[in-house]
TrEMBL record:
Record-given protein name: D-3-phosphoglycerate dehydrogenase
InterPro entries assigned to the protein according to its UniProt record, in alphabetical order: ACT-like_dom_sf, ACT_dom, D-isomer_2_OHA_DH_cat_dom, D-isomer_DH_CS1, D-isomer_DH_NAD-bd, NAD(P)-bd_dom_sf
Superkingdom assignment: Bacteria
UniProt cross-references to SUPFAM superfamilies, sorted A to Z: ACT-like, Formate/glycerate dehydrogenase catalytic domain-like, NAD(P)-binding Rossmann-fold domains
Described purpose of this protein according to its UniProt entry: Catalyzes the reversible oxidation of 3-phospho-D-glycerate to 3-phosphonooxypyruvate, the first step of the phosphorylated L-serine biosynthesis pathway. Also catalyzes the reversible oxidation of 2-hydroxyglutarate to 2-oxoglutarate.
E.C. numbers: 1.1.1.399, 1.1.1.95
Length: 387
């Protein structure tokens, strides 16, 4: 039996995919697994019971990844599951920034009682006119799940697209249209583009990447779109750029007290992934990842431990160990098993940065003293015996 707790509402599609072995609890401290969307977890204390956290979404800056790794808690996300939802809103954002659709709709509402509204429209509408996207230059920073879709959509809209991502994965690169220009430096993209859209994670090194220096390199009247995270943009510098006309519009999916209501800022209440399809996709993937880990120890799409998959254990017993990535860990594990005359049927060991994961299938029962001895090895962070 596994206990889970949802820190945010998670689509029923995911919850329904759980078997009767999964029971919701009303106290997160009693949970084997937590499901979360954007709830901040940095101030949460985790109980020793907690084995995994699944983020039904992409961004994991709301989760203390390092502390979780230290406590042997595997954190998953759902790469790509909400990418199409975000892509579509980015296209809407470019359109909102190109024509004064919002101003026009407001004008109609303000004049709803005007009996001559049809005639007056033809005089008033020039105030809300704009430009088309076709032929304009679009710069996409970050060419992962979302950025790749946005870049390809730009090509389909007839835009000239520049992409910048020095760390792009081979799979993501294969998905890109060959008509996208490969920007060798981000400055090249800043200098050339009419629309610049951010699709990078909110890592320490990416924080504040759009500031007065980068804004100063951009074309006057540029549109900047941020559907990634507020902290990527220095909002005070953005306000100066909007006031001076350097930036025509800043389209952001992240309201903050600083940017909400600023003239020229088009701020959306974090709706990028708020579609039925994205919510279902994320919930389904998050639950699948949790169940595979809790029941079989398989790790797929973890952000703090390596992926490692040995399928189902069949008739074997499986022991899984979360530990530091340092010499002689495997040697110590196998010695304890050999000293107890246990036969290893299968083994996998993977590492990611400072952390590592080992799965061992044994063709006999695993006695409690073996589990205890493994747990006592210096550098072992968590041990689970799965039946
Ligand atoms: N608005 C929303 O509702 C919403 C929804 C999903 C994701 N997001 C945000 O969007 C971000 C991206 O999501 P994704 O699914 O595309 O992630 P992803 O991991 O598939 O892609 C991120 C890409 O950014 C690249 N990158 C990292 N730092 C970079 C840099 N300095 N310059 C250029 N490229 C860089 C990486 O190499 C990677 O290819 C998430 O981290 C999250 O914060 C927001
Ligand atoms: O859960 C959400 O609504 C937003 C998720 C989004 O910001 C993400 O990073 O995936």
């Amino acid at each position: 039996m596994y206990h889970y707790y949802c820190l945010n509402p998670i689509s029923e599609v995911g919850i329904d995919a759980m078997t009767e072995n999964y029971v919701p609890v009303s106290d997160p401290k009693k949970a084997d697994a937590l499901l979360v969307r954007s709830a901040g977890m940095h101030d949460m204390e985790f109980s020793p019971e907690l084995k995994a956290i699944a983020r039904a979404g992409a961004g994991v800056n709301n989760i203390p990844l390092e502390r979780c790794a230290e406590e042997g808690i595997v954190v998953f996300n759902t790469p790509g599951a909400n990418a199409n939802g975000v892509k579509e809103l980015v296209v809407a954002g470019m359109l909102l920034a190109s024509r004064d659709i919002i101003g026009g709709i407001n004008w109609v509402q303000e004049n709803e009682e005007d009996g001559n509204i049809a005639k007056d429209t033809e005089k008033a509408k020039k105030a809300f006119a704009g430009c088309e996207l076709e032929g304009k230059k679009l710069g996409v920073i970050g060419l992962g799940a979302i950025g790749g879709l946005v870049a390809n959509a730009g090509i389909h809209l007839g835009m000239e697209v520049f992409g910048y991502d020095p760390y792009v994965s081979v799979d993501a690169a294969w998905r890109l249209s060959r008509n996208i220009h490969h920007a060798k430096t981000v400055d090249e993209l800043y200098k050339n583009c009419d629309y610049i859209t951010l699709h990078v994670p909110a890592t320490e090194s990416n924080r504040g990447m759009i500031d007065k220096n980068s804004l100063g390199l951009m074309k006057k009247g540029v549109v900047v779109l941020n559907f990634a995270r507020d902290v990527l943009v220095n909002e005070e510098d953005m306000i100066d750029a909007l006031e001076s006309g350097q930036v025509k519009h800043y389209v952001s999916d992240f309201p903050t007290p600083v940017i909400a209501g600023v003239k020229g800022a088009i701020v959306i209440p974090h709706l990028g992934a708020s579609t039925a399809e994205s919510e279902d996709n994320c919930a389904r993937m998050a639950v699948r990842e949790l169940m595979d880990y809790l029941e079989y120890g398989n790790i797929k799409n973890s952000v703090n431990y390596p992926d490692c998959d040995m399928g189902m254990p069949g008739d074997n017993k499986r022991i899984v160990l979360l530990h530091y990535n340092k010499p002689n860990m495997l040697g110590q594990f196998t010695k304890i098993l050999a000293d107890d005359n246990m036969n290893i049927a299968d083994l996998s060991n993977k590492s990611k940065g400072a952390y590592a994961y080992t799965m061992i299938d044994i063709d006999s029962d695993i006695p409690a003293n073996v589990e205890r001895d493994l747990r006592n090895i210096k550098g072992v962070l968590k041990v689970r015996v799965l039946n």
